[in-house]
Design goal:
Length: 316
């Protein structure tokens, strides 16, 4: 039993030295996945770059055009955290296309994972917080427009609240958003999700997992989704540069296992995206991120494969 994993070399773009966003982690994640033999067929699924029409389903077309033409206003670029050059714009498009492909593969196989994605601070009007396009929101909108899903649930366990996702779907009854995050962390002005759990600084494994276990099954029942997009950010880790929580590595693994097993035992496809994680030690950070892919593979070996052919899986 294998788990389809989506990756593209364009996930890595260039940033100035010592930038807080660890761009090289995407290359390191892919290398570690290959080294550990996690690719069932020995290859990554390679996405196409998301076209304008896809991205404009979840973002203001004016902003989408600014990114595609690399003409983003300086004030917006400052909120994002870097200038939008051609390679940065391409990276945003390929990562978004990767999450779209991951969603379709999840429908066919039960579980699929991206090696990027989870850009949850990008809202309808513009990007922010190192997030250019909200790949999960775009994927949901594309799949709804294609008629392959009606309802979706976003489980966001990045240490930062998923304000952009909440903003995009705030008036949408067919998409439920659930974010569990550090109360005092970025963003300062949070946009309410359908379900928010705000944790105090220093929350560790036991309290974190207890909150998650208590809420996940309930949210699933209420949402009645055709698919779950899971943002498995690893910045709740106790040594993360930008986190304020205190999960251990074992706690991160238990978290991913809990979410994946709960969703799959309910018979719902799950698409996993990388989310946030920050460290100067790229090898350590990559190893932390690959927890998602290891947990997904372990779960897939114990769950029946979903055999649903959508006819819409597109690779680059």
């Amino acid at each position: 039993m294998s788990v389809p994993i989506v990756h593209h070399p364009a996930y890595c773009a260039s940033l100035p030295a010592n930038h807080r966003f660890p761009m090289d982690k995407f290359r390191a994640v892919a290398a570690l996945i290959e080294a550990e033999g996690l690719l069932g067929e020995g290859r990554f699924y390679k996405p196409r770059a998301a076209p304008f029409d896809w991205v404009a389903l979840a973002h203001d077309p004016v902003y989408v055009d600014q990114v595609f033409s690399t003409n983003v206003p300086k004030a917006v670029a400052r909120e994002i955290g870097f200038d939008i050059r051609p390679d940065i714009a391409a990276r945003a498009r390929y990562a978004t296309g990767g999450t779209v492909l991951t969603g379709y593969l999840a429908l066919e196989h039960g579980i699929a994972c991206n090696t990027a994605g989870g850009s949850h601070h990008a809202r309808w009007k513009q990007g922010a917080g190192f997030c250019v396009f909200n790949d999960v929101a775009v994927a949901i909108r594309v799949m709804q427009a294609d008629g392959v899903i009606s309802r979706a649930l976003v489980i966001d366990l990045d240490v930062h609240q998923g304000d952009g996702t909440a903003d995009i779907f705030r008036h949408c009854d067919s998409v439920v958003t659930f974010s569990m995050h550090a109360r005092k962390n970025y963003p300062v002005r949070k946009v309410p999700s359908n379900h928010d759990i705000e944790l105090p600084d220093g929350a560790s494994d036991n309290s974190y997992l207890a909150h998650l276990a208590a809420r996940t099954t309930e949210v699933l029942k209420r949402a009645r989704p055709d698919i779950v997009f899971y943002n498995a950010g690893v910045d709740p880790y106790k040594e993360d540069r930008l986190g304020r929580l205190a999960l251990s590595r074992a706690g991160l693994l238990q978290r991913d296992e809990l979410v994946i097993q709960t969703v799959r035992q309910a018979g719902i496809p799950l698409a996993g995206v990388l989310g946030g994680g920050y460290s100067e030690d790229i090898d350590e950070l990559a190893d932390r991120h690959v927890t998602l892919h290891r947990a997904a593979l372990a779960c897939a070996k114990n769950q029946p494969t979903v055999q649903r052919t959508t006819g819409h899986v597109q690779t680059g």
